[in-house]
Write a structure and sequence with these properties.
Elements: H1 28-50, E1 54-58, H2 62-83, H3 90-98, E2 102-106, H4 109-119, E3 123-128, E4 132-134, E5 137-139, H5 142-153, E6 159-163, H6 169-174, E7 178-181, H7 187-197, E8 204-207, E9 213-217, H8 220-226, H9 232-240, H10 243-250, H11 254-260, H12 271-290, E10 294-296, E11 308-311, H13 317-335, E12 340-343, E13 347-350, H14 352-361, H15 374-383, H16 388-400, E14 405-411, E15 428-430, H17 437-454, H18 458-467, E16 476-482, E17 486-488, E18 491-493, E19 496-501, E20 517-522, E21 535-537, H19 551-557, E22 561-566, H20 567-570, E23 582-586, H21 594-599, E24 600-604, E25 609-611, E26 620-623, H22 626-629, H23 636-651, E27 655-662, E28 671-680, H24 684-688, H25 694-699, E29 702-704, E30 707-708, E31 711-722, H26 732-748, E32 753-758, E33 780-786, H27 802-808, E34 811-815, E35 821-823, H28 825-830, E36 835-836, E37 840-854, E38 859-863, H29 865-870
Parallel strand pairs: 1-2, 1-3, 3-6, 6-7, 10-11, 11-13, 12-28, 31-32, 32-33, 33-34
Antiparallel strand pairs: 4-5, 8-9, 13-16, 14-15, 14-16, 17-18, 18-22, 19-20, 19-27, 20-21, 22-23, 24-25, 24-26, 27-28, 29-35, 29-38, 30-34, 31-37, 36-37, 37-38
Helix pairs in contact: 1-2, 2-7, 4-5, 8-12, 9-12, 10-11, 13-23, 15-17, 16-17
């Protein structure tokens, strides 16, 4: 009915009708009505909790409301989607859309003024007609009065004056406000321009006071990049008008906008200082919003400073998925540790989508059933070509990434909760420092292909068959991480690298199993022949170091070499294979290296003493980590404790982590703690085993409630025991020699054994136990420390040989006192000897013993072969 168009809204009884709309066949009106109702419901909560922006529209005509409202909502959605192009990921885009500006409608002067007062802190702009009710009657100046009042109180707020009468343009400009003619044939385009130029949805256009354009920026990174070169006059012009905060508001950068809004140009001694302040704020915000967020790779908006970037729509794999999960949790931890950058290193993940494309494009779909050797598989993969879209992404990434990299596997099954494919795939370290970009790209592609090829290598095929998995189920993502550390005299490494575990199966009092355990080493870790010297400590008791009991222990067990990337040689190498980039460095040759100074003590031979100080001229550096663990120059133990606890909570069980630390070189520099990897401790409940029953303890050949270790050992058929009848405390040195000879024979035969004897094994005091060295017992699988009337020694609790015990998973049972358990000597006495020496008996059983240790309770049993034969291996 055409008469509806002329109806005055005051003629409706508002007790029954909220708002009147005119249907003209435009389906967008229905969506606009729904959004308008939703905005009315949500605006109070969203502004208070999320500071969502608000636009007030003042119009009393149902005809114009029905025409303009769909137009405004469509423009808001379009502009918000345009701004979302620079969003980090799908979740971020979703939240940005949820945070779009709300539109609140008013039909009277009083209603509009009430909304303005209520939502003034959150206003993005006001759009108003000229003629509408005021004080109960139509006032032809109501819109002019309203906008003039708002301009006086909020001079920076963008205002738009609608009118069907062109004569109102001059009055609008006096306010001043933007004027639009409702009857304009290009009204939609004019509204679009108002949103872009005045509400901040378009590019930030830098202008001089005369209006001439000098620069523009489409997103935060561009604004940050352009700002330093913008003339100071333009910065001053926009700063006076709060244009920076308004533009940020439209992009839902609300916290930064609120930070900048109260800042005045007059707060700075010069415009240069203002410019520097703006750049700093933008940098902090850009990096801050990326912390803990997985950013989708977008060539048009690629930010090389992003913490975690995912390329492709496939899976990130187990390793990357766990790290991404923890990255979000580390933000809270980082806020509690000023002066330490806590997070993950810059990470670029190539999803399994690229792996699938590589397999398909190179005709390798049947490779899973291939029984060729590893060399053949590697050669086939190296001859293949990476998908074009991946090559383009790699080129862009390497354009910005001019630092050493770690190329890691991240397969679907690698960090699974049960039967994970952990430790089956390799990591390749790339110096990534050659001056020729083509060389760097070839080396990068070589490493990616090697990781892809490792998916089908022989040991993976064997493991897949043993677990029941089909190798076709496995897919490989690749995780590229920036190496933590810095270069020193041509070699690159972090100061500290390490691992930590939520659960410790070798606790030494006062440690508890649930306190966890950490292993740390200098540089990129100890070389393979020195790994046993990585320092173990409990994060809850960092000063309790059983392997460092005496000066001799420290000298024997301390790390002697560390690994570093040789960048000098890498800058000259042009071949694609980069596996030879790691160098083994002798710690004694680098006493002045900053990392050695930061984590070492000094051995002074003249005093036979180790001093907790940096290496001195009259001494030698010894890697004890005393400055950190004893004097807390860096809170490593506390950080590990917090991280293990957070990981345990997040993953619902015990976890293991890898990390790297870079210590500051000067007082104004932050330390860096990077989490490199986190995963559940695989099959923890199965690993820990079933709790030992009372019957099993009572019937066992040997039971100890003071045991170190965990799990089952069912392949030990050789027993070497010190005959208690022939034992002589004065001859313990001779006993140690006999054990060494037997150990050598068993080593030649490839057999391990259980060792049983009185007193403290490895004791430096030969009156308290048998002073064997590690070479004397290198084939041992389990040690029983038994009591004897001729020796009065307290339980060692495994402090001797602690490094070797924990590194090699050796079981250690203490039975010094009756309260510790029992040993059925009668059973051992009945067994025939394979060999007998002056003090030893060597027994070989027809079937292996069953050794079971419950690491949670520190209880262990050694069971007869007949019992173990029927049980699981």
């Amino acid at each position: 009915n055409p008469n509806w168009m002329a109806l005055d809204p005051l003629c409706f009884d508002c007790r029954y009708i909220d708002r009147v709309f005119i249907w003209s066949g435009n389906a967008d009106l229905l969506l606009a009505i729904i959004k308008s109702v939703e905005d009315g419901f949500n605006v109070s909560f969203d502004t208070q909790r999320a500071r969502v922006r608000v636009i007030i529209m003042v119009e009393d005509s149902p005809l114009y409301i029905s025409s303009l409202l769909p137009l405004l909502y469509k423009e808001i959605v379009t502009q918000t989607q345009a701004v979302m192009e620079e969003s980090l990921n799908e979740e971020h885009r979703f939240f940005r859309m949820r945070a779009r500006p709300k539109i609140l409608m008013a039909t009277t002067y009083e209603e509009a003024l009430t909304l303005y007062r209520q939502y003034r802190p959150y206003l993005l702009g006001v759009i108003s007609d000229v003629r509408f009710p005021r004080e109960g009657r139509i006032d032809p100046d109501a819109g002019y009065r309203l906008l003039k009042t708002i301009k006086a109180e909020s001079p920076d707020l963008p205002l738009l004056n609608f009118s069907s009468e062109e004569s109102n343009r001059k009055r609008a400009l006096k306010i001043p406000a933007v004027f639009l003619d409702k009857n304009s044939p290009v009204l939609h385009e004019e509204i679009h321009l108002f949103f872009q130029e005045h509400l901040g949805f378009g590019d930030f256009v830098f202008r001089l006071p005369d209006g001439s354009e000098v620069a523009r920026a489409a997103n935060l990174r561009q604004l940050e990049t352009v700002l330093p070169d913008v003339p100071e006059a333009s910065i001053h012009y926009h700063g006076l008008r709060n244009h920076f905060s308004g533009w940020l508001m439209a992009r839902s950068e609300i916290l930064l906008a609120y930070r900048l809004r109260p800042v005045k140009v007059t707060d700075f001694a010069s415009t240069t200082l203002l410019k520097d302040y703006l750049v700093t704020c933008l940098t902090e915000r850009r990096r801050g919003r990326q912390r803990g967020v997985v950013t989708d790779f977008d060539p048009a908006h690629f930010d090389p400073d992003a913490d975690f970037v995912k390329f492709g729509n496939g899976s990130m794999g187990g390793k990357a998925r766990g790290l991404a999960f923890m990255a979000s949790r580390l933000k809270a931890l980082a806020d509690t540790r000023p002066g330490i950058q806590i997070g993950v290193p810059q990470t670029f993940v190539i999803s399994t989508e690229a792996f699938d494309a590589f397999i398909n494009e190179n005709g390798l779909r049947d490779i899973a059933s291939c029984e060729k050797d590893d060399d053949h598989i590697v050669r086939v993969f190296q001859e293949g070509h990476l998908p074009a879209f991946l090559q383009e992404a790699i080129d862009l990434f390497l354009t910005h990434a001019d630092y050493p990299l770690a190329v890691r596997s991240s397969s679907l099954l690698e960090d699974a909760q049960h039967q994970p494919f952990t430790g089956l795939y390799a990591t390749y370290l790339l110096p990534n420092c050659h001056p020729d970009n083509n060389v760097r790209r070839r080396q990068f592609e070589w490493a990616v292909k090697r990781v892809y090829a490792s998916t089908f290598q022989a040991k993976v095929r064997r493991y897949a068959r043993s677990t029941g998995y089909r190798l076709e189920q496995e897919k490989m993502a690749v995780m590229i991480q920036r190496l933590t550390g810095r270069e020193h005299e041509g070699f690159f490494c972090p100061d500290i690298s390490g691992q930590a575990f939520s659960f410790n199966f070798y606790p030494v009092a006062p440690m508890k199993a649930e306190d966890g355990i950490a292993l740390v080493a200098a540089g990129l870790g100890a070389p393979d022949d020195d790994k046993i010297r990585a320092l173990r400590f409990c994060p809850c008791h960092p000063q309790k170091l059983p392997q460092f009991s005496t000066v001799d222990d420290i000298l024997q067990n301390a790390q002697r070499h560390f690994m570093a990337l040789d960048l000098q040689s890498a800058r000259r190498r042009v071949d694609s294979q980069v596996t030879a980039g790691l160098e083994k460095l002798d710690i004694d040759d680098w006493p002045e290296h900053p990392l050695i100074k930061a984590i070492s003590s000094t051995f002074v031979p003249a005093e036979n003493r180790i001093r907790d100080s940096a290496p001195m001229r009259n001494g030698y550096p010894v890697v004890t980590f005393a400055p950190i663990l004893k004097h807390n120059t860096f809170p490593l133990a506390a950080l590990i404790t917090d991280l293990l606890e957070s990981g345990h909570q997040g993953m619902g069980g015990p976890v293991e982590i890898e990390f790297a630390v870079q210590l500051p070189r000067s007082g104004n520099e932050d330390a860096v703690f990077h989490l490199l990897q986190i995963r559940p401790m695989p099959q923890f409940e199965q690993q820990a085993g079933e709790a030992l029953t009372d019957r099993a303890k009572a019937e066992a050949l040997c039971f100890s409630n003071l045991a170190l270790g965990n799990g089952r050992h069912a392949n030990i058929a050789d027993i070497v025991l010190v005959d208690p009848e022939r034992f002589d405390p004065a001859r313990t040195v001779d006993i140690a020699a006999e054990i060494g000879r037997l150990n050598a024979d068993l080593g030649n035969a490839g057999r391990r054994f259980i060792l049983i004897g009185p007193g403290r094994w490895g004791s430096s005091d030969h009156w308290l136990g048998i002073p064997v060295t590690w070479n004397d017992i290198s084939q041992v699988a389990a040690i029983v420390e038994a009591g004897h009337p001729k020796i009065q020694a307290d339980p060692s609790q495994g402090s001797h040989f602690f490094q070797n015990l924990t590194s090699l998973g050796i079981v250690y049972l203490t039975l010094q006192k009756p309260a510790h358990g029992h040993l059925r000597w009668d059973w051992f006495n009945r067994q025939p000897d394979l060999a007998r020496t002056t003090f030893l008996r060597h027994i070989r059983l027809a079937a292996p013993l069953n050794i079971q240790v419950d690491g949670r309770t520190s209880e262990a049993v050694v069971q007869e072969p007949s019992e173990s034969a029927a049980g699981p291996p």
